[in-house]
Amino acid sequence: MISLKEIAIAGIGESPLGRITDMDALALQQRATKAALDDAGLQISDIDGLLTTPLRVAKWAMPCGIVAEGLGIRPRYLATIDLAGASGTAMVHQAAMAIATGQCNTVLCVAGQNLLSFSSNSDAIQKMADAGWAHPELEAPYGPMIPTLYALLAQRHMHEFGTTSEQMAQVAVTMRNNAALNHQAQKRDPIKISDVLESRLVTSPFRTLDCALISDGAAAFIVTTKERARHLLQKPIYLLGQGYGFSHAYIGDAKNIVTTGAVNSGRDAFNSAGLEPKDIDIAELYDCFTITVIVELEDLGFCPKGEGGRFVEDGNIGLNGSLPVTTHGGLLSACHPGLAGGMFHVNEGVRQLRGEAGERQIQDAKTVLVHGNGGVIGLHCTLILGADS
Amino acid sequence: MSTYWEKTGDSFALPFCSQCAQFHFYPKPACPHCGSTDVSQSEASGYGEVYSFSIVYRSPSPAFKDEVPYVIAIVATSEGPHLMTRLVDVPSNLLAIGLRVKVVPRSKRLSAEPLFTIERDI
């Protein structure tokens, strides 16, 4: 057994992102894998652990087996991780645990799919709607969209705390500004708050630009021992702390929908890292909807409960703000191919800590919080990554 | 297999635990308050208030295409449990969190799933 503090992220990579019509899910995952291996200076034969997630576009009975077969590996440890949108962050910790217990040494985490081009946009939305985010028997018959489930949270947050549509729009604008500096991002044209407020109403209070994209794409990262990572091509990035939190499976019967399991995941992540919110240089927050970021800022302790909207409005989350958030442009503007979406937040955290984020680099970033949120903001996994162990 | 609301028939009945004398919803394998499996359906008042709502403008599937816009809501029942539902016949100027609502009688709706409307209209 070694300590989780002895684990590092050694390589990251992505497939082409956006609308990619000539690659299926496995092809996208292979491209992301190749990019991560090249980044680390590893061969596929060096991989002895594999983690992936379920996907929507194909009926894969055992995703980890299908991916292992597709990539031509026979790992000593493999698993399919499903914490919904929290899968990306959880994979880092699950890989670290497998390595720390000696089950394997070098874990490839890879996921992604052609969610956008697999079908028309409305088909993709329906496929996600069929996935059970709304209770199949007690909620789905009423006809909520997936965005409706989060809109219920947004409406209640506005009621309890005075959060405004303008404040939510500021999240979308910030993500687009960040994406403009990310050449891989799907949406890079600048938008203003008025553009968000004038975009089409989808499910009140959400308009189109309050909602995540749907994308084709895959991401990969490689987790290994600090000892091995030191001898590879990149500066190792360390896992300093992690936490999980769960508050509810469905939004309809949750007692309190405005305070989430992120309270617990954040508390445990900070405790295990021995750090506090003020020690964080960048927060790569899961941003499936604009309200999600506001609630996470509060529940992770970056501002008091109910102050998330004002925290955003005051300019704190931009690249020049006190807490830059989701610096690659997130699910709202960069890439959202389903469960793999949160892996891009991990990769962005690694890029920032290596100092390789180009025009969007935050100077001297040493400590990054990465947060994943799954289901209808009920399932959470928070990581704290560091440039120094 | 019939759904929960098909089984409850004409009444607005929620799971009620005989051990701790509390309602819960959604249905669980055992009472979420005390763990007892001594749970049966018991008629609830049908009164509650809007905990949150969203007006859906874009249908999630072809099945709902002709119904948009419609109001999805979470209602906090007077007995405590929350549930998702639809609000019907609520004037848009009155639609708000905190609005007092009551379940629409089974005889006045087509589907087994309960709908809610503004309390004064019942």
Descriptive account of the structure:
The complex is a heterodimer of chains A (389) and B (122). With 389 residues, chain A is of the alpha/beta class. Chain A has a domain at 4-118 and 214-229: Thiolase/Chalcone synthase (Peroxisomal Thiolase, Chain A, domain 1, 3-Layer(aba) Sandwich). Helix content of chain A is 35%, strand content 18%. A nine-stranded mixed beta sheet of chain A has the order 3-2-4-7-1-8-11-10-9, sandwiched between helices. In chain A, strand 5 (201-203) and strand 6 form a beta hairpin. In chain A, helix 3 (87-100) crosses helix 13 (341-354) and helix 6 packs across helix 10. Chain A starts with 6 loop residues before the first strand and ends with a strand. The model of chain A has no long low-confidence stretch (mean pLDDT 96). Chain B folds into two domains: 11-43; 47-121, Beta Barrel (OB fold (Dihydrolipoamide Acetyltransferase, E2P)). In chain B, strands 6-5-4-7-8 form a five-stranded antiparallel beta sheet, with no helix packed on it. In chain B, a hairpin with a 4-residue loop joins strand 1 (13-17) and strand 2 (22-23). With 122 residues, chain B is mostly beta strands. Chain B is built from one helix and eight strands. Chain B is globular. The chains are: A alpha/beta (389), B mainly beta (122). The interface between A and B is medium-sized, with 36 and 32 residues.
How many strand elements of chain A? 11
- Poorly predicted segments of chain B: none
- How far apart the termini of chain B lie comes to 32 Å
Name the CATH architecture of the largest domain in chain B.
Answer: Beta Barrel
Strand segment count of chain B: 8
Helix count of chain A, per DSSP?
13
Classify the helix fraction of chain A into a percent range: 25-40%
How is the biggest beta sheet of chain B arranged? 5 strands, antiparallel
Q: Secondary-structure element order of chain B, as H and E? A: HEEEEEEEE
Can you identify the CATH superfamily of the domain at 4-118 and 214-229 in chain A? Thiolase/Chalcone synthase
What percentage of residues of chain B falls in helices of 4 or more residues? Answer: under 10%
How much of the sequence of chain B is in beta strands? 35-45%
For the record, the CATH class of the largest domain in chain B is Mainly Beta
User: What sort of overall outline of chain A do the alpha carbons produce when their principal axes are compared?
Assistant: globular
Summarize the main sheet of chain A. Answer: 9 strands, mixed
Distance between the termini of chain A: 18 Å
